[in-house]
Write a structure and sequence with these properties.
The protein is of the alpha+beta class. It has 3 domains: 2-160, GAF domain (Beta-Lactamase, 2-Layer Sandwich); 167-227, Orthogonal Bundle (Helix Hairpins); 236-400, Histidine kinase-like ATPase, C-terminal domain (Heat Shock Protein 90, 2-Layer Sandwich). Helix content is 48%, strand content 22%. The protein has 11 helices and 13 strands. A 6-stranded mixed β-sheet has the order 11-12-10-9-7-13. A hairpin with a 3-residue loop joins strand 11 (362-368) and strand 12. Helix 2 (24-39) packs antiparallel against helix 5 (131-191). The longest helix has 61 residues, at 131-191. It is elongated, with a radius of gyration of 26 Å. The N and C termini lie far apart (79 Å).
Length: 408
């Protein structure tokens, strides 16, 4: 009787905690915290599994120092591959798994979450309990994970719905602007009263709005890759100076419209990097600098390199950030200055940080409210070729906008 009361008490506590969790990550953490506290285990981790994509991700762990071998998503799936290949739908003991995971002795229990016949993940419990204690744990965990599978699925579904709602919201405004200008062009062409200058302005506004939509969609699509682990990096030797120049030139019209002087100075350097991914990072930083700088103002982009590192700096005279905001800046979907109604998804910096770190670099910020912000990206040392020594360069795009210079 006491055993049944204990089971019911644990299940009620689990139900309450999962229902109160704000999102999927919080629900996973609530699950591992509760199992760790109630079963006296050395450590508990929850791993989500996508067998079709051969992906597994450590979603939560208690205490924090346990299961460090599961921090990498690729490594996690490889370590669990044998269990998953056998179906992984039964609560089982994995006697040798503690050694594989670098744990200090004991044994590991695998307690899978299964929903509608599909494996969605599982608990890994590290314990030094006796055979009798482990057998009792396995019986109870079979009940716990059955309830947890439903609760976690509800939390994941809510995240998915929030994601789609945010995507629809963020895309709606720039898309409406583009469609509005295209309708205007059509009406004026029908009336025969559209002048070349007006056409150019309308097309420019439409293009910028559609680029904003493209960037939003790209960020959202790339988010799924980041959330499953580190982003995929395809390195090649690139001229980073030319990449920065091309990206900055793209923002000249937006800067000019807000009376922001957009300047660029840097060194001709070659690096081993993913051109597409770094283009995304540079674009996110410059775009943010312009968006959060009320005109008139300045946005200065610099690129420097030596034998130790390549340093890209984006400095603006914009709204700036408090120390509290800076501490949360690179979190997913975190947005600031919402009162200004500036469009965005809150994903740009989160994605940028993941991409820079995947290149072996780092990104940080210095900011003062009301004075502006400076974002600094540091990448591994440049590849210098004898025929191309370091030199300042200025983008040819400077000539496109007299009020927006690319030279300091």
């Amino acid at each position: 009787m006491l055993e049944k009361i204990e089971e019911l008490s644990l299940l009620r506590a689990l139900s309450d905690r999962l229902a109160a969790a704000a999102d999927f990550g919080a629900a996973c953490q609530a699950l591992t915290d509760l199992v760790w506290a109630e079963r006296g285990a050395e450590g508990v981790a929850y791993v989500s599994v996508d067998s079709h994509r051969r992906a597994a991700r450590r979603e939560a762990v208690t205490p924090a120092q346990e299961f460090s071998a599961l921090a990498d998503a690729t490594c996690t799936y490889e370590l669990l591959a044998d269990v998953i290949a056998r179906g992984g739908t039964e609560v089982v003991r994995l006697p040798s798994f503690a050694w594989w995971l670098g744990l200090a002795g004991g044994t590991v229990i695998w307690a899978p979450t299964v929903l509608r016949g599909d494996l969605t993940g599982g608990l890994l419990i590290h314990t030094h309990g006796s055979d009798e204690e482990i057998a009792a744990d396995c019986r109870l965990l079979a009940i716990v994970v059955a309830m947890a599978a439903l609760g976690l699925d509800a939390a994941r579904t809510q995240v998915r719905e929030d994601f789609l709602a945010t995507l629809r919201h963020d895309i709606k405004n720039p898309l409406s602007v583009a469609l509005g200008y295209l309708d205007l062009i059509g009406d004026r062409l029908a009336d025969g009263g559209l002048e070349a200058d007006e056409l150019r302005r309308c097309m420019q506004a439409s293009t910028e709005s559609l680029k904003a939509v493209d960037d939003l969609v790209a960020n959202y699509l790339h988010l799924a890759v980041i959330d499953r682990g580190r982003p995929s990096i395809e390195k090649e030797e690139i001229d980073l100076g030319a990449v920065v120049s091309t990206v900055v030139s793209r923002f000249l019209p937006a800067a000019s419209e807000k009376e922001i002087a957009l300047t660029l100075r840097g060194a001709v350097v070659r690096v081993s990097a993913d051109r597409r991914q770094l283009t995304r990072v540079i674009g996110n930083l410059v775009d943010n600098a312009i968006k959060y700088t009320p005109g008139p103002g300045r946005v200065e982009v610099t690129l420097e390199a030596d034998d130790r590192a390549v340093v890209l700096t984006v400095r603006d005279t914009g709204m700036g950030l408090s120390a509290e905001d800076q501490a949360q800046l690179f979190q997913k979907s975190k947005r600031f200055h919402v009162h200004a109604r500036i469009p965005g998804s809150g994903l740009g910096l989160y994605l940028s940080k993941a991409i820079v770190e995947a290149h072996g670099g780092c990104i940080d910020v210095e900011s003062t409210p009301g004075e502006g912000s400076t974002f600094t990206v540091r990448l591994p040392a440049a590849i210098r070729l004898p025929s191309e020594p370091a030199a300042d360069f200025v983008s040819e795009a400077a000539a496109l906008e007299p009020t927006t210079s690319l030279a300091s």
